[in-house]
Amino acid sequence: MENMSVYLAEFVGTAILILLGGGVVAGVSLARSKALAAGWIVVTFGWGMAVAMAVYVVGAVSGGHINPAVTLGLASIGEFEWALVPGYIISQLLGAIVGACLVFLAYFAHWRITDDPEAKLGVFSTAPGVRNPVANLTTEIIGTAMLVLGVLGIGGNEGSVTKGDADLSALFAHGLAPLLVGLLVLAIGLSLGGPTGYAINPARDLGPRIAHALLPIPGKGSSDWGYAWIPVVGPLVGGVIGAWIWHLTGFGA
Fold first, then answer.
1. pLDDT tens-digit readout, 141-175
2. % helix, strand, coil for the chain, step of 5
3. Which of 37, 66, 191, 223 has the least C-beta neighbours within 10 A?
C-alpha cells in the first residue's frame, strides 16, 4: 500500500509537469493563443516552474523524481531502491501521457485552426534544431547529467542549513529545494536547450509522443518515431553519468 502511494505521487507529479510544461509550449505555438510567439524565455521559464510545482505537490510523498533519468541515476549510486524503479518509471510514463491529454483538452479549440503540424508535435515532444543523431544524443546526455548532478547538489545542501541551534533542513528540503530544482531546469533550458529542445526526461518526451500518436489532433502529421529514441536513451545515460560524477567526487559524503 505504501508503494502505491509513491507510485500515485509520481503519476500525479509527472502529469502536472506535462500539463504545465506542454501547456506553455502550446501557448506560444498554437494559432490565436494569447501567448502566441512569446518566445523561448517564456517556454524555459514555464518548464522550470512546471518542475517546481510538480515537486512541491508530490515531493514529500515520493521524492518528486518525475523523471526516469533521475530515478535510474539515484538507483545506480545506491540512493534509491532498485525494487521501486520499474513502478516509478511506469507511473511517470503514464502520468506524462495523461498530462499531454490534458494539454490537448485545454487547447482543444486551437488545434484545428493551427496549420503547422510541426508546431503541434512540438507541444508534445522535442525535436532537434539540426538533425544529427550523435550531436543530439550528446546534447541530451550533457543536459541530463547536469540535471541530476544539480539535483544531488541541491539535496546535498539540505543538512547544512541551520540558524543558531535550529535545524532548518526540513524547511530547505520542502520549502526551498523544489524552487531551486525548477531554477536548475530553467538554467539548463536557457543554456543547453537550443540544440534539441532539452527533453532531459524520457517520460516527458515519450509519454506525450504516444499521446500525440493516439489523440485525434486535426492535421497533426507524423509523431517522428525515428527521432524518439534519442530523448529516451540520452537522458537515461546522462542521468547515470550525473549521479556517478556526484558519487565519485565524494561531494555528498
1. 999 999 999 999 998 887 666 555 656 667 666 67
2. 70, 0, 25
3. 37
